[in-house]
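Protocol step 4 of 5: obtain the predicted structure for the target chain.
Materials: sequence only (see below). No template structures provided, no constraints applied. The aim of this step is simply to have a reference model before the mutagenesis design in step 5. Sequence pasted as it appears in the construct record:
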Amino acid sequence: MTNKPNYRSLNFTTIDQVGVEERVARFGSRSIKKSSKMQGLKMVLSMIDLTTLEGKDTPGKVKQLCYKAMHLHDAESDIPHVAAVCVYPSLVKVAKGALKDSQIKVASVATSFPSGQADFKVKIDDTKFAIDEGADEVDMVISRGEFLKGNHQYVYDEITAIKEICGKTHLKVILETGELNTLDNVRKASEIAIDAGCDFIKTSTGKVQPAATLPVTLVMLEAIRDHYYKTGRMVGMKPAGGVSQAKLALQYLVMVKETLGNKWLTPKWFRFGASRLANDVLMQIMKEKTGNYQSLDYFSID
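Step 4 output (structure tokens):
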């Protein structure tokens, strides 16, 4: 592992929590016109990593989820497909086969998800297995225990090593912000992951509460912005867990637009990690089209 930069001697950006909360409060008051709302809702669908990460996952469940990913609502011809399906490494091959005739990516969690409490060799093997099975994207977790001990160099070196294994396979680094305690720590972890060469930073595993929140996401977006201004390199962002309503998802898009600009408003640079969001977005799209809400019975659960 590389030992540079030396995180024992670097100063991190500190966060004005009151300022963050005041800015976030304003996103909830934005008024979105009907035409823009429809465009935004379809954009949200195209950015979803449709996810199942349960101990009871089976090949049959994953195949059904992949079918849903490709056929969100066949009654409407202009509904986009989601960006990716996210599963455990042992089910990557199943998802890859089910999605072979689509452009939908297969993402896999790795590095002893969700706790990250494993020997480094186990994390390496976990990542290699996911890639060998065909994963297009890897979502790794950082070692929160090491981070909270102040061992930032360890976290940086671990991410660097995993990214080297990933090569061209996109690497999303999960900070698990619900365990980082402060916005200052969220900013530190974001800077470390970005400096280590990740392709995306991601809020949460979805297994810890709170998961994704607007304040945490804003802090991470600002870290991405500052890195872009400094280096010209774009890094993606993925809030995951806790985003299950279309109205909230639209607020995230407004925040991305106002913080990073239009270049980030594509599935290449922004994703939602979600299992329930797609159905609520579909309900809102049909409400905009017909003036009436359809029952959830019209949409598949998984």
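Step 4 remarks: The longest strand covers residues 105-110. The chain has one domain: 30-291.
Proceed to step 5.
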